[in-house]
Every structure is written in C-alpha cells, then in structure tokens.
Write a structure and sequence with these properties.
Layout lengths: L2 H32 L3 E12 L5 H18 L2 H11 L5 H6 L1 E6 L4 E8 L2 H23 L8 E7 L5 E4 L2 H26 L7 H8 L42
Antiparallel strand pairs: 1-3, 1-4, 1-5, 2-3
Helix pairs in contact: 1-6, 3-5
C-alpha cells in the first residue's frame, strides 16, 4: 500500500480507532478507580564495619546483607512487629506486605512496607527496622568490638505515597492499547474488502489502467403501466343473424 492508500483508509475508518481508544481509556480509568489504593513507606538501614579501614570486614558485610534480609523476614522478628502493632495477621502475611532490597554498593538495606492504610504502612516499616536493629545490637554484645558490624537506621519511615493503582499510567496505557486494537481492526476490515470492486477508482487501483467510461445501470420498467391509447377497446354484443338464411335480423 502506498501512502495515499493509508491516508484513504484512515479517513474512511479512522472513527473506529478513535472510538475504541476512548472506550479503552475510560475502561482503564474506571478500573483504576475501583481498585483499593495501596500506600508504601520506606526505611533504610546502613551496615558499617567496626573497623572501616578493614577491607576484609567490608567484604564480609556484602556477603552478610542477604543473611540480614532473611533475618528481617524470620518469624522471630516479624512476630515481634505483629505484637507491638497488635496486627491481626500471620508472619507470612506480614512478610508479603513488605519488600526488601539489599544494595551491596552502598551496604544498605531498604525496607518498603505496603498497606491500604498509609499510617499502618509507615509504622510497619519503622517498627520492623527498630526491632531488627535492637535484635542485632543484642547479638553484637557477644562479639568482640573490633569484629562487630553496626546496623543503624539510615533514615526513618518516609511519608506514605501511593503505590497502586497508578491511574495516569493505566489510563495512558489503555489509550495506546485501544488505539493499536483499533488500527488492527481497521486493517482487517480493509483486507476483507480488498477483493471487492465498487468504484472506478478501485478498478484503476487494481489493474493500473485509466477508466474511460462505464456501462450505466438500466432500471427495470416492466411494471410501468401501458399508455392509455394502446388499451384495447371494449367490443359490443355480436349482431343477431337468421338461423336459416344467415342474414342479419
């Protein structure tokens, strides 16, 4: 297809693309508004070696970050959070509402709590960080000070922000998806009509020859009434004749 063919198709069926895009956009917006908002709050923990100049101890921390993440998810820690906050959830359920990220380049652990209640999300992240730091400090009491790894709260729980749904993103994605579906439908319809010749332009496009003329359609006029002048006249009664001689009476 040439460029003018695409333009012709869009002018002819472009309304389909617009309608489907509008429907998809409205659907995505409505779906986003029907969802329960989920908020998130983040706390960061820093891990520092007792001897910062000891390169070996720094490497040890990188290997221990994953262990610390596992400890943060352990029932021993999460159950304390549940008890402090008086939550009606199990430790696995609490862990499913928290996302952990260990960054070896900065030796930090990020705790991201998610909840439908923004206040609960912030308190959940903060309480988990405080419980873990307290438990880690208790373990450090049994280790020589030179070999200790210090864990501190780098920053407290951030102000909760919306995590999902992202209405603007969903609406934009709905509009793009709807437009793509509309384009697909338009070209499918055009493909189905590609073998049908309706106009002289279609003939010229298919055979590449200029159309000089066309045969007009002849209307069926058999149902038209005949002219009154051609209607047969009514005949009168036949003359009476004598049955014996055949002469008119």
């Amino acid at each position: 297809m040439q460029l003018q063919d695409y333009a012709r198709v869009l002018l002819k069926r472009g309304w389909i693309i617009i309608v489907i895009a509008i429907i998809a956009t409205a659907s995505a917006f409505g779906f986003s508004k029907l969802q329960t908002p989920i908020y998130r709050s983040t706390v960061a923990l820093s891990t520092v070696p007792a001897r910062p100049s000891d390169y070996g101890q720094t490497l040890a921390i990188k290997n221990l970050l994953r262990l610390y993440v596992q400890q943060l998810q352990s029932p021993a820690i999460t159950q304390q959070v549940i008890d402090k906050m008086q939550l009606d959830v199990t430790p696995p359920k609490l862990v499913s509402q928290i996302n952990f990220n260990a960054d070896e380049s900065t030796l930090t652990i990020t705790i991201e709590a998610r909840h439908a209640n923004p206040a609960v999300a912030a308190k959940m992240a903060q309480t988990l960080a405080e419980v873990f730091v307290s438990a880690h400090n208790q373990e450090n009491l049994q280790i020589d000070q030179r070999d200790r790894i210090l864990v501190n709260i780098l920053y407290n729980a951030t102000s909760p922000d919306i995590f999902s749904p992202k209405t603007s993103v969903n609406t934009g994605a709905g509009a793009i998806l709807g437009a793509l579906i509309g384009v697909l439908i338009v070209f499918v319809l055009e493909w189905l009509d590609s073998d049908i010749v309706r106009t002289a332009e279609d003939v010229e496009r298919f055979i590449g020859v200029t159309v000089l003329g066309s045969i007009p359609t002849i209307a069926d006029r058999t149902s038209d009434a005949a002219p009154a002048s051609k209607k047969p006249a009514r005949l009168g009664a036949p003359p009476r004749v004598c049955p014996h001689c055949g002469n008119p009476i």
